[in-house]
Amino acid sequence: MYGRGHQQYEVRFGPPHTPDVIKWLLIANVGVFILQHVLPGFTQAFAAWPARFWQGALWQPASYMWLHSPGSLTHIGFNMLALWMFGSPLAAAWGRERFLRYYLICGVGAGLLIVTLPALPVLLGLGAPPTYLLPTLGASGAIFGVLLAYSLTWPDRTLMLLFPPIPIKALYFIPFLFLVEFLFGPANVSHVGHLGGVLVGWVLFRRQSRLPLLPSKDQILLRWRRYKMRRQLREVRRDQYRPWRDDDSRLH
Fold first, then answer.
1. Enclosing domain of residue 35
2. Which pLDDT tens digit goes with each residue over 10-56?
3. Disulfide-capable partner of 145 in 11, 28, 201, 216 (CB 3.0 to 4.6 Å)?
4. How far are the Cα atoms of 106, 159, 233 from residue 227, in angstroms, in the given order?
5. Which residues are paired to 168 by β-bridges?
6. How many alpha carbons fall within 13 Å on the CB side of residue 220?
7. What pLDDT is attached to residue 5?
8. Any idea what the CATH number is for the domain that residue 148 is in?
């Protein structure tokens, strides 16, 4: 705990408490990851294949979110780390049922977009895009929904990133992730799945909070005024401390 004046700053890695629903989700994902290495054909049967979904594999938008890339600890590692770090405070604030419902709907909603969007050119007679015949797997759709809910619940919290090691407000975390993903992400990242989780999460969050789907003009203007006031306040504080810095520089 660090403080200056009347302000207190708390620095910690991860949440202080892990709710049971987060523990069970972590166990479920790791358990399925083990099954992927034990049962032949398990990954192929339960990943989200657009072509197979429209041929009758209707379970895949719900099953793909429990799978992760076999043989790679990075995929499941980053997803489970994000679920633990950002899902724990959200589950503690919302309660088990609301959080689990939100998590599952974000994941399944993203899965439906994953299998539907590549099928649209086929349905329109334009031919099958490459993604129509490729599988998608991973909890990232649900995880991005959780990240969105966290950033909207505590927008002014400051997050210290590991790579790069810079602070960022929670409200800007999702745009930052999409920028990094677009510039430096691997070619096999499912942008549709990530964006789908965010879109579904946005609708759910706004509906659960009894808010319109889009903020009003007055709300946008209010947030802009608050942003300008915070900038002016920071400038005033810098001006107050500048004479002290000037004195220090003359002493040295």
1. 18-208
2. 566 678 899 999 999 999 999 999 999 999 999 999 999 999 999 99
3. 201
4. 30, 18, 10
5. 159
6. 4
7. 39
8. 1.20.1540.10
Of the candidates 159, 19, 32, the residue with the CA atom closest to the CA atom of residue 92: 19
User: CA-CA distance, 111 to 53, in Å (whole number)?
Assistant: 11
Q: What pLDDT is recorded for position 234?
A: 77
Question: Please, is 176 exposed, middle or buried when counting C-beta atoms within 10 Å of its C-beta (0-12, 13-18, 19+)?
Answer: middle
Question: At residue 7, what are phi and psi to the nearest 5 degrees?
Answer: -95, 140
Q: Look-up: residue for tokens 């999409």?
A: 178
Tokens of 129: 């895009």
Same-domain check for residues 77 and 141: yes
Same structural domain, 251 and 140: no
Whether 10 contacts 1, CB under 8 Å? yes
Same domain, 87 and 162: yes
What is the DSSP track for 118-136? GGHHHHTTS---GGGGS-B
Both 68 and 121 in one domain: the answer is: yes
Residues 122, 233 within the same domain = no
Q: Are residues 223 and 137 in the same domain?
A: no
Same domain, 147 and 30: yes
Q: Given this model, what pLDDT does residue 6 score?
A: 41
Q: How far apart are CA 199 and CA 206, in angstroms?
A: 11
Q: Please indicate, yes or no, whether residues 203 and 229 belong to a single structural domain of this protein.
A: no
Q: Count of CB atoms within 10 A of residue 139's CB?
A: 29
User: What is the spatial distance between Cα 225 and Cα 236, in angstroms, rounded to a whole number?
Assistant: 17
Q: Say what the pLDDT of residue 188 is.
A: 79
